[in-house]
Amino acid sequence: MSIVGMADTAVKEAQERVRAGIKASGFAMPGEKVVVNLAPGNLKKTGSGFDLPIAFGILAATGQIPEEAVSGRLIVGELSLQGNVRPIIGSLAFAVCAKKRGLAFVTAVQEPAPIQGLEQLGVRGLGMLHLEEPFEELISKPASKGTDAVSPLPDYRDIAGHDIAKRALQIAAAGEHGLLMMGPPGSGKTMLASRLVSILPPLTDEETMEAAVVHSVAGEDVQSILSGVRPFRSPHHSATTAGLLGGGSPIKPGEVSLAHCGVLFLDELSEFRASTLQSLRQPLESGCVFLTRAEASLRLPARFMLIAASNPCPCGYLGDVSHACTCTSAQVRKYHGKIGGPLIDRIALRLDVDRLPTSSVLSSGGGTDSETLRKGVMQARAFAQKRRQAERSKVPSGDAPGSPREVIASCNLDEKAHRFVNTMAEGDALSGRGLINTLKVSRTIADIEGSANVTEDHLAEAFSLRVDSSIGGGADA
After folding, report:
1. Helix 415-427 crosses helix 456-464 at what angle (to 10 degrees)?
2. Which of 7, 206, 212, 391 has the most crowded CB, counting CB atoms within 10 A?
3. Per CATH, is 2-138 categorized as 3.40.50.2020?
4. CATH placement of domain 156-368
C-alpha cells in the first residue's frame, strides 16, 4: 500500500493500522498494490483521522461492503490494530463540516455533536460492517445552558471589600472592555479576575458552537463550553508568541483563539516578553488572528476580553503603604516598558488595587456576590441592545458598528458634558483611540443605570477608571 498526497508521518502509518485492522476484522486485503490518493496533492495532510475512511474505501472498492456504506457520508476516525475505531481530536469541527456539506457524519461511537439536523452514525469497529445494520445512530441533543453540568464557578462573595475593583469588573463585563489591574503582591488581583466568568452572560448558541469548535480542534475539553460557560484562559508569562497567537506544525489555535467569546487573563503582565505582548494588538482590534505559514494561511477567531494584572514595579511595592519600594525610576520604567504604550492605549479600564486590611480579609465570604453583579451586567446588555436598535436608523449608513462617529452619537452629550470631555481629554493627553474607549466605557456605565444620555457623572467615573498612578516613579523619584 502507498499513500500519496503530502501525507505526514501519522497519515503514512495508517497503512499499517488499516492493513492490520482489516485482517483482524475478518475482511481481506486485496492481492494487488493499493494506492491511496489524498487530493488535493498540494495540501499537507495530518493526523490519524484518515484511517477509517481509507479502510472504508478499500472495502468498498473491493466489494466487501456495499457502496452505500460510503456514499454521502463524511467518515473520520482512527483504527487500532484490532480494527476498533477511536475518536480523534477535532471531531466537532468535522461534524460542522458534514452539516455544511449536507453529508451524514460517521465516526467512533461517542457523545454526539450538538448539531441539529445532522445525521450522526457511530461505528465501534470494522467488524460491525459484517452486520446488516453496521452503524449505531447517535441522537444529537441541543446543548444545555447553565452551569449544572460543570463545577460551580468561583463567586465574588469570597472577596470582602474591593468594591471599586468589582464595579470596574462589572463595567468591563457589561461592555466587553479590557481591564488592567495594578497592585502589590497579595492584593487580590488574580482572585478578582478569576471570578469574572461568573458575572458574564451565558454563551449564545452561535457563540457556543464557535468556541467549542476551536477547543475541539485544539484537543481541549468542550463540556463547560457546551454548558454555556464562557472560556477563561490564563497562560503563563513564559508563553511564546506562537503559544499565544497559534502556530506549530500542524497549526493549532493559540490562547487568544481558545479565549474566543470569553476572557484572556494575563497575570504578571510585565513579565511577558515585549514582542509577545505587542502581538496582541492586531487581534484586539480585529477580533481574529491571521497566521501565514508555508503550508497554509489561516484566519482564526479571537474575539475576547483582555484582563491583565501586574505588579507596579519589579519589587512589587511601589505605592504600598506597608512596604517601602526599593526600585529606581529607571527600573520601574524598564519594567513597564515591556507592556508598551500602544497596548496600554487599547485597554479601556485601568485601576490600582490596594492590599486589603486584615479586618477585611478575616470577613471574607460576606462581600458583594456574583449574582448581584451579574444582574447589573445582564440589565446593561439588554438596555444597550434596545438602545442600539433605536439608534440604528439615526446612524449614517456608511458608519460601521463601533466607529468613532457611532460611539459619539450614542452618548448624546449635552454642551456641559462636551466641555467636561474636552477638559479631561486634554488634561490626560488622551489619544484619539483612548478618548473613544473612554466614551465607550461611559456609555456602558449609562447602560447599567438605564440612562439614554451619558451625563457628566458617567464621564467622571469613566475617566477615573483610566488612571496610571502606579506607572512611573520609584524609590529615588
Report:
1. 20
2. 212
3. no
4. 3.40.50.300
